[in-house]
Design a protein that fits this description.
This protein has 255 residues and is mainly α. 75% of the residues lie in helices and 4% in strands. It is built from 9 helices and 4 strands, in the order H-H-H-H-E-H-E-E-H-E-H-H-H. The strands form 2 sheets. The protein has a two-stranded antiparallel sheet with strand order 1-4. A two-stranded antiparallel sheet has the order 2-3. Helix 3 packs antiparallel against helix 4, helix 3 runs parallel beside helix 5 and helix 5 crosses helix 9. The longest helix is centred in the C-terminal third of the chain and has 37 residues. The protein is globular, with a radius of gyration of 22 Å. It starts with 6 loop residues before the first helix and ends in a 7-residue tail after the last helix.
Length: 255
């Protein structure tokens, strides 16, 4: 079997999937903190496979497909099982349905993405990316779960709603920015992305894991705010066009 350059990014993709599997194993044993960190580790490998694919110029349709399958495991199935084991199992059938939304809607989002993909470089995602959803769940666990006292009671009440909102955002038409490519052209084109990323790294380094959840909340909220703004702007432009057409019509004169 001939070994090609595509093996390099695919290796990181497999490591991504392996981390998702380990997250499920730890969650099944009630070790929720390691389970959450394995989701973050999966995200690191998920980023590296894209970087390595560009460096080795081995981007391919096979890479896209295996990456999506890995993402379903690491950012769909693993977070869904994590929240079920963490708290949602206490809700019976409703808990099963709510937790499964993270996996099902994540899979639907990736299927839509793959069928609409044109080329391999993209400026934005339509719908919340599944890694962002999975990492938000992992950050939620790191923030509100304690080995001593368990899950914060207030956070437990919000967890089902968090799962539903994340699931709906994944299949929405709200646009979210992609990770910036590290090169001079990208920095000149969208410098604010790099500023935001640098500030996020600094904040996490200074404050620790507690800052991760607010940062993901900000990322999600910015997408929603921008979508609402663009919708209102489009509606106002449409109304102005209608007004102009009405003004241009000749008025009828009674004889």
């Amino acid at each position: 079997m001939r070994i090609t350059r595509a093996v390099v990014p695919s290796l990181f993709t497999v490591l991504n999937m392996f981390c998702g599997f380990n997250s499920i194993l730890y969650a099944s044993k009630g070790e929720f903190i390691p389970a959450a960190w394995f989701i973050f580790l999966a995200a690191a490998f998920d980023s590296l496979d894209g970087i390595m694919a560009r460096l080795t110029k081995s981007t391919s349709e096979f890479g896209v497909e295996i990456d999506s399958l890995s993402d379903v495991v690491s950012f769909g199935t693993a977070p869904a099982f994590l929240v079920y084991q963490l708290y949602l199992n206490t809700l019976g059938t409703a808990g099963i349905l709510i937790s499964s939304l993270l996996m099902i809607f994540g899979g639907l989002r990736l299927a839509r993405f793959n069928t609409q993909l044109v080329g391999f470089d993209k400026d934005h995602f339509v719908g919340l990316p599944i890694p962002a959803s999975g990492l938000t769940i992992a950050a939620f666990v790191l923030t509100y779960w304690s080995e001593v006292s368990g899950l914060d009671p207030t956070a437990a009440k919000f967890l089902p709603w968090v799962c539903v909102v994340l699931a709906l955002l994944m299949v929405s038409k709200i646009k979210y920015d992609t990770l910036p490519k590290i090169n001079k052209r990208a920095i000149k084109k969208e410098p604010w992305k790099f500023v935001f990323a640098a500030l996020a790294v600094i904040v996490i380094a200074v404050t620790g894991p507690t800052a991760i959840l607010p940062l993901f909340g900000l990322f999600i909220a910015l997408g929603i705010i921008r979508y609402i703004g663009s919708t209102v702007k489009h509606w106002m432009h449409h109304q102005e066009k209608l007004d102009e057409e009405e003004a241009a019509e000749p008025s009828s004169v009674d004889i």
